[in-house]
Amino acid sequence: TVQGVQGINPRGVAEADVVALHMEGGQACVQVFFIRANQNWGNRDFYPRTGSGAEEAEVLEAFLGQFYDEKDPPRQILLSHPIENADLMAEALGEKRGRKVELVVPLRGEKAELVSFAARNARESLARKMSEAATQSRLLDGLAEAFALDAPPERIEVYDNSHIQGTNAVGGMIVAGREGFLKSQYRKFNIKGDSLTPGDDFGMMKEVLSRRFKRLLKEDPDRESDAWPDLLLIDGGAGQVSAVAEILADLGVDDVPFIGVAKGVDRDAGKEEFHRPGKRPFALKRNDPVLYFVQRLRDEAHRFAIGTHRAKRAKAIGATPLDDVPGVGATRKRALLAHFGSAKAVSRADLADLKAVDGISDTLAETIYDYFHEKG
User: Fold this and answer.
1) Given CA atoms 352, 357, 363, 366 in this order, what sign does their dihedral have?
2) Which residues contact 80 (CB under 8 A, 6 or more apart)?
3) What domains can you pick out in the chain, each with its CATH number?
4) What is the phi-psi region of residue 358: left when phi exceeds 0, alpha when psi lies from -120 to 50, beta otherwise?
5) CB-based contact 297:173 (threshold 8 Å)
6) For 346-362, how does the pLDDT look when each residue is reduced to its tens digit (9 = 90+)?
7) What are the pLDDT digits (tens) for 209-262?
């Protein structure tokens, strides 16, 4: 949110919502300020969909109808644009609230200043969103060019496996597209294969991809929905890539491109190597924005898989994750709990705080810290 929002505490407006709309390039942003007891109680951005050729009055009216469908309106709503059925809207909102609600498009004074401030915020928020979308679009174009894809991908799926000594193995899938990361589409896969040996990445990948694509083939065999990926990014090199090729071929999926992202020589983060079936591995230039984009995708997949794995392991361990930390017996566990108050607080403690606990050596403090902050 734009700076200075908290400083707006209107003297002459006791209770109102300030609703300002900005439209540009067929997109809209509505900024709502909540004023209660002469104080600004914060603000929120909304991005309503606009029909083609929709005017401000229409977009704002539709927004108000939806916005107050689930919440009680204040006594006054200050608007940036007049709406067509203002009387009807005021009446409907008044009935909902059980007392009069006023809709006003202020032209001067403090109320007009509040509206113009909210409108400026809406304009800046929309500009930021549009520039992020343009950047994302350029990155997807760059990805298509770098990896010789037929078209910029609309849906990228990135897979990562996380397991510590093979226990509670979890596969994670994140999704990205034109809107950035699509978190509602993320999926975790609890690895069921009892025959898998700890650290069997191929086995895990096979199980995850088989489950994912069998489900897609069952739910959308004609590929009509946007649930089908245009590109898969896999953690690993030539070995993983040939395994994935085999898995997809077995399922009869032969037109989803996939790329293995491997750490390069010396596992240097800037030197990722990209592997494609039947082609030589290649690297992108160190400062290539597409390289940063792929790194971000991979980091997000890793973060998601690790987080999911940790949650699963904590659940398996039960109420006191301390039980499973090597070297922490009953006495030390009591000392840690007495010092920090809970196992959760121990898991979040930094190294210096752990070293400060009576009876915990520096080496053990490091073991405890590493246990809760391992990188997977």
Assistant:
1) negative
2) 19, 20, 21, 22, 56, 60, 105, 115, 118, 119, 122
3) 16-132 (3.30.420.340), 155-314 (3.30.420.340), 318-373 (1.10.150.20)
4) beta
5) no
6) 888 889 999 999 889 99
7) 999 999 998 988 888 878 899 999 998 888 888 889 998 999 888 889 999 998
